[in-house]
Every structure is written in structure tokens, then in C-alpha cells.
Design a protein that fits this description.
The chain is an alpha+beta fold. Helix content is about 25%, strand content about 25%. The chain has helices spanning about 25-30, 45-55, 80-85, 90-95, 100-105, 110-120, and strands at about 5-10, 40-45, 65-70, 75, 125-130, 140-145, 150-155. The strands form two sheets. A four-stranded mixed sheet has the order 2-6-5-4. The protein has a three-stranded antiparallel sheet with strand order 1-3-7. The longest helix is centred in the C-terminal third of the chain and has 11 residues, at about 110-120.
Length: about 160
């Protein structure tokens, strides 16, 4: 599938000056990227981005950024038939045990799924948010490849250069 429109990300201020790096995800690994693989975890709405960034406890300092995007070759994680074809289920995507799996096996099932999608040429994964309070309408787009041009165009909106000061 293809996505064109705005995307949002609520960043830890530590990474605010690198909103296109994916470095934090590469350092720690994420639900849909193994350690060492950069990824951008983006949301289709501002509120989803805020829920994603502040899942535990009180609202912490957060830098909200937005992007213009035109991304091709996205795997739609809401499509149960497509998931079955990749030996994955919606329940497995949502499993809260992915961190434990990563610690014990070196790679969580969802990370292996993401690795297979990357190898197959997908630039990213559209998936519902699993943050507390999220509904089926809260969607995220996890990108493993992005650039400032097609087919994975992602451009930070910072017309006033606020992040480069």
C-alpha cells in the first residue's frame, strides 16, 4: 500500500535535534525493529503520537514534530490475510511480551516479522497503536527506509529552522 499525507512523532527531547535519524530505535530495538536497525515510529495523528511517547506514568517532556510523507511499499498490518501469509497474527503484533522475547531469544517474534518484511522490500509497516487508551483508529507507521525523495519520501516540517538552532 501507499501512504501520502502528514505524519507525527513525539520525541524524547534527547533525540529532538535528530528527528530523521532512527538512532534511538537502533540503539535499543523496538517492537518492530531489531537492535542495530534504525526505524522511525510515526503516527497518523498528533494524539496517537503523544500516547505512544508517554505510555508509562505521567506526561514527560516531549518534542512534537510533523512530516510530509509519500511512502510506497508499506505492509498493512491491519490485513489479517496478509498477516497470515507472513506467519503473523494480530494478537502476536499486540503481544506485550516482545521485550522479554528480545532479552531471552535475542529477537522478538515481531522483530523477526519486521526483518522478513524489510528483506521482501517493504519500506514500513502500518499498524494500530498498542499504547494505553488507543483505539483501532489510532494508527502508526513504522519506517525502516526513508529519504527526501520517492519512493520513501519523508520530509521534516521545520520551515523556521527551530530544530537547527
Amino acid at each position: 500500500m501507499r501512504y501520502a499525507g502528514k505524519l507525527f512523532r513525539a520525541l524524547n527531547p534527547v533525540f529532538a535535534r535528530e528527528p530523521l535519524s532512527g538512532r534511538g530505535a537502533a540503539l535499543h530495538g523496538g517492537r518492530f525493529n531489531p537492535k542495530g536497525v534504525p526505524a522511525l515510529y510515526l503516527s497518523l495523528s498528533v494524539m496517537t503520537a503523544l500516547r505512544e511517547a508517554n505510555q508509562v506514568g505521567n506526561l514527560q517532556p516531549t518534542t512534537l514534530v510533523s512530516y510530509d510523507a509519500e511512502i510506497d511499499a508499506i505492509f498493512d498490518g491491519r490485513d489479517s490475510e496478509a498477516l497470515t501469509g507472513e506467519h503473523m497474527t494480530a494478537d502476536a503484533l499486540a503481544a506485550s511480551t516482545w521485550r522479554d522475547e528480545m532479552r531471552s531469544a535475542g529477537e522478538a517474534r515481531t522483530q523477526g516479522f519486521a526483518r522478513r518484511l524489510m528483506t521482501a522490500g517493504h519500506t514500513g509497516l502500518l499498524v494500530r497503536s498498542f499504547a494505553p487508551g488507543a483505539t483501532a483508529d489510532d494508527l502508526n507507521l513504522v519506517l525502516w527506509r526513508w529519504d527526501d525523495k520517492a519512493p520513501a519520501r519523508l520530509v521534516l516540517i521545520d520551515d523556521e529552522g527551530r530544530l537547527s538552532r
